Amino acid sequence: MILPIYIYGQPVLRKVAKPITPDYPNLKELIQNMKETMYASDGIGIAAPQVGLDVRLIYIDVDVIAQSRPELKDIRMVLINPELEVDESSKTVTAEEGCLSLPGIHENVTRHDRIRLKWLDENWRPHDEVIEGYLARVVQHEYDHLEGHMFIDHVSAIRKQLNRGKLNNMVEGKVDCDYRVKTVRPQRRR
Ligand code: NI
Questions:
Q1: Spacing, Cα 182 to ligand 1 middle (Å)
Q2: Which residues of 24-57 are buried (b: 16+ CB within 10 A; e: fewer)?
Q3: Three-state secondary structure along 19-38?
Q4: Per residue in 60-75, pLDDT tens?
Q5: Is the full-model pTM beyond 0.70?
């Protein structure tokens, strides 16, 4: 089932998400719904707060952009309760990011290029890997959502100011995108 995407201004996007417990109800169904929702909105990653749930669950599929980045071929990950450690000694890379919860905004974000990630997959098997390059960026972006952060928090005050109108419109429910959304005020098409 495709779920609506929660848009900037929704309080759930600013909460620190809670760990998922093994008895979390209908987890398999939630993962399936997040996948369907992400594919329907052409995303490469989605975090549970973006479908209105303050739990630590992420789905990533970077295989869909493997044509331009061959190293991402076949990479699809369900991350339950991920633990992220940024390698502060790694180089920083600046690249453009977007977010399903911030439709129409694309800004450069500088992030470290290497992380260590521990997580549980959908079968509750533990993983512990060092991840580099573009995937490290995607994981950091999605992990931010679990901490109540969004990529717009990382851009300069000036760039944020330049996007202020768009951000205010999102809060007001004025959002143009071709997927279902949930805005704070009822959505008004412009
Ligand atoms: Ni995002």
A1: 15
A2: eeebeebbebbbebbeebebbbbbbbbbebbbbb
A3: CCCCCCCCHHHHHHHHHHHH
A4: 999 999 999 999 999 9
A5: yes
Q: Yes or no: say if 177 and 103 are a contact pair by the CB < 8 Å rule.
A: yes
Ligand 1 geometric centre to CA of 19 (Å): 19
- Alpha-helical (H) ranges within the chain are 27-40, 134-146, 157-162, 164-172
Is residue 142 among the annotated active site residues?
yes
Question: Could you tell me the distance, in angstroms and rounded to a whole number, from the CA of residue 74 to the centre of ligand 1?
Answer: 21
Q: Which two tokens stand for residue 51?
A: 């479908």
> Exposed (0-12), middle (13-18) or buried (19+): which is 96, by Cβ within 10 Å?
exposed
Q: How far apart are CA 73 and CA 62, in angstroms?
A: 7
Question: What distance in Å separates the CA atoms of residue 121 and residue 119, rounded to the nearest whole number?
Answer: 7
Residues with CB under 5 A from ligand 1 (ion): 99
CA of 174 to the centre of ligand 1 (A): 19
